[in-house]
Structures are given as C-alpha cells and as structure tokens.
Amino acid sequence: MPHQEESGLPPGEADAAGLSPDIDHYPDPSWAGSVFVRWPMLVLGWLMLAAVALNFANIIGRYVFHRAIVWTEEILIVWLGWSVFIAVVIVTYRGDHLAMDIVSKNLPMRWRLANNLVMTAVFAACLAFAVVQSAKVVLLMIKTGQTDPMMGMPLWVPNLAIFVGFAGSLCALLMRARSYVTGRF
Amino acid sequence: MSALQLTMAALPVLLLVFGYPFALVLLAAVTVALAFVIDIPADLLHQAVFSSLNKYALITVPFFVFAGDLMARGGVSERLVAWVSAIIGGVRGYLPLTVLGTNVVFSAISGSTSAAVAAVGSMTYKQLRQSGYSERYASGLLVSAGAMDNLIPPSIGFILYSAASDTSVLRLFTAGIVPGLLLAVAFAVLVYVRALLSEERPSVRFTWQRFLAATRAGIWSILAPVVVLGGLYGGLFSPTEAAGVACVYAMIIACFVYRKLTFRGILDSAARSARLTGQVFIIVAVAGVYSWLLTVSGTSDAAAQFIGGLQVSPWVVLLAINIFLLLVGCFIDTASAILVLTPLLVPIARSVGVDPIHFGVILVMNLSLGTFTPPFGVNLFVAQAVLKVNVREMYVGVVPFFLVALIALQLVTSFPILSLWAFQ
Taking a C-beta distance cutoff of 8 angstroms, is the pair B379, B139 a contact? Predict the structure, then answer.
C-alpha cells in the first residue's frame, strides 16, 4: 500500500527523515489535491504551532505568573483528536497508510489487482460502518447538550473530529479508488 | 476457540498477509466483531476510539516529532557532529565513534530513528567515505546507530508502549537509558576493535583549543538535551511539557541563532510532523478498540493461560518472544508492531512474572533491531534515499552490528536490573 515518493521512501518515512515535499510542492495541483492535502496541511501546521504556544504559555504562566492555564490539558487533547483525524484524511487521500505489502506486492498482476479491489471495498465498508456509528454518537451528544465540566465546551466538538475523520477518509478513498486498485498514486 | 476469538486473532493475520494497512486490519476485525459476532452496541466503536486518543501523555509524540524535525533541519546535527568529533579526536576509529556519540546526543532530543539516520548520516557519510571507510562499513554503522534513538529517552516507541499497556512513560524513559547506552557501548567496542585490527591511526588529535571552539560554536545544540532531559528529570516539566519546550527551543535556535529556517519552514515542519503523527495515531485509535475487544473476548487471557499451562521457564518464553519480535521487526514498522502486539504480549509476559516496564524495554529493543535488519528495516530505506548507498553493501554491512546488538539484547533480557535499576 505505501507508495514510494520521489525520495524512494514510503511517505511517512519521508516525513520522518525530512525528505517529503513542503506544503506548496505536493505533486497534485488539482482542486482535490487542495481540498484533501494542501489546505488540511496548512490547518495542521497552524494547529500544531498553536498547541506548542499554549503548552509553553501554560509553563510560563505556572513558573513566572504563578497561575497555570487550567484548561490546557483539555484543549490539547481536543487538538490531538482533531489533528489526528484531519491528518488521516490526507493519509487516506495519498495512500500513505502504513502496511506490510511483502506478499501482495509480489502477487501476479491480475491477483494483485483483485486483492487491491477487495481491500478497497473492505476499506470503504469499514469506513462507512464507522461513519454511521460515529454520526449516531455525535447526534446524541448534540441532542443531550452534554458539556465538558472544566471548560463548558460541548462534548460534540471533540467527538465530531472522529466523524469528520472517518467521513473525510471515506470521501478520499472513493476519490482515489482507482489509485487504490492499481496501486499507483 | 470462540467466533469472537477467531475474528480477533485469525482475521487480522489473514488481512496482514494480504498487505492491508494496519489501521484497516484492526478496523476490519473490530467492524466484523461488532456487526456480526458480539452482541453489544456498535457505537462503542466511536467511544473506544475517542478514549484511545483521550490521553494527555500521547500529546508528547507530535511534540517530540516536531522538535526532532526542527533540530534536524535547523543546523543542530552538524554542530553536534563537530562537538563530538572534537571530544573523540585522538582515539582510534574516532570518526565512526563520532557517529555513535552524535547519535547518542541526537537521540536525547529526538524520538525518531529515521530522523537520526537522515540527520547524522547526511553530515558524516561523505566524511567516512573520504577517510577510507568502505561503503559497506559506513552504511552499516549509520543505519545501526540510528536504532539507539528508540531506546534513549525521549523515545516514541516507549510513549506508544505506555499508551498501549497503561504503564508510566517516565518510568519507561528511565528504564531505556541503560539499555540504550549499552547498545551504544556494544557498537563502540565493535568499532574500536575493528580499528585496532586494521591498525587505524587517528587522523585528528584532541586539543583543548579545538574542543573549546566546537563547544562555543555548538553550545545551543549541546544544551538541547540538557533542557529537555534536565527539565523532565528535574521535575520542572511533565513529559508533554518537556516535549513542547523542546519545540520552542528548537524553533528559537533554528530561526534566530543558526538562521536555518524561516517561519514558512517552521510551518512546513509543523504540518509534516502532524501528518506523520496522524499516520501512526489512527492505528493508536483503532488499536484501542481492538485491545478492548481482545480483553472482552478473553483472547489475551487465553493466550496467557496457554503459555502458563506449558509450564516452561520464563526465559524460554522470553526467548521465544525475542525471536518472534526480531522476525516481526524485519517486516513491520516499530510503531505499528508495538500497538498491535502489546495488548497480546503483555498479559503473556505478566503470566510468567516479567515486569511490564522491563518487558516494554525488551519489546522496543527487539523492534529497534528491526529498524536496520533487511528486508524492511526503515533505517535501510532512509539511508538508501539520503545517502544513495548500494543496498547489497548495506545489507552485508549491518551484519556485525546486528550480531553485537543481539548480545546487548540478550543482556537486557536476562538482567532486568539493567532496566529496573532505578525502581529497586
């Protein structure tokens, strides 16, 4: 599954090794590339910087002003959830999910295509199942109006990230179904 | 074996063999179990995914990934190489030893083996080759040395194990120090013996002048591990806060001290780090549901009871687990293997009386060896991409380092005190 980038590395590792292209140079200039990769990447970048700033402000507040920002933990946990589920849409669109493809890669072409086709169908079915379950929970939370006791934030806000992640991944998968089947992204 | 146990154990293995992504393997098992096998509300899937990520300690991972990326791009690694080289000058095999020493220091500020191989490799590989070291030896050394990053704190491997096994991150970090240094010493002995046998003469001598100049030039880089680990063990910060401080520190020196990165570069690095985190954390999220169902289905307990029923010595069990993990490490990346295997293996380890912290070190060390073993060791891919080395030469080059690392692994497995010395 993980395709090779220009660096020759699976994309996740290219990220870790600092070899993947920056936000403005992703090789897909289409509108879908913007919606599923470039804009979410910008959001992820800004959210990460905001999270680092909040974490640092809390430390400064505690040691310099003797007043910690009590809701830092809650906000950072919400950030982590949103960050992960925005990222997973990008990962799905680019076919970057971590996998061990030693057997499937060496199958004869026809079998490989059949295997990829089944895998894509299974992926879509599982994501659809997750979207339905997630929607149920989020709708229930909106209906009951549950809030976080520390900040008073509605609980559907952090939970919505899971729905957005699964639904966005399903859209990304359907957009790239052909690439998933052929193995070429 | 019940239908649920079959779904939770056999289905994932089948899907893994056919190359399904790890997140999908777990999601498919969970979906089948919830939709067709087990009679509990299926919206548990959402709630368990939410709970899996609802852990403050996990925030440490994206922060340390970001800090490591900033330091690798921000000119920290080249100054660390110069500083370690100035210390080791005059010793036989000083250049390979510089690689090892730099990796140890770099490991104390970064949690990613890929970042370590890319950062240290790009600074030292050319120098090693120009000094007459073969492609085989130089590449073998660089990819093997990167593995230490998984053991020396801060280690992403330990953070993931902590999340999957409900153990303390700080305890795991502490437990990893001696095994990480032991691996470094084992590699250093190999390098030194080789230098003695080949009658190498050090091309650079140690001088106080050179050392002081390198220290002055690299003081901000040298202070990075002091800030991170000092704050952590000095009780000033929690692991998450220490990771955040490492990011701020790295931004300041990359932007204002070394002037290697602009704001745009920092934003790119932040986005890349977040995406990388998402790629791993979607497995964390689904693994939480999978792990919960493993417990409910009694699969983990059944495996532990089966092993316990064999009445074999704990050492036999650990030896079998070591062999299994070494094989797994050759094919599966460290993060995925930790997340998938921890819920299954920890109950087995507990059933034979192995401390979960000690077991975490064993597991992470085994999988660290997998980062430089063919065919799918991730460090091999990174070295291939960054250093453009011949794969066959690299495969042969890692053999002596792998054998030495096996000895270190055996010592860590046999002597729990090496991991648990701080908690006795």
Answer: no
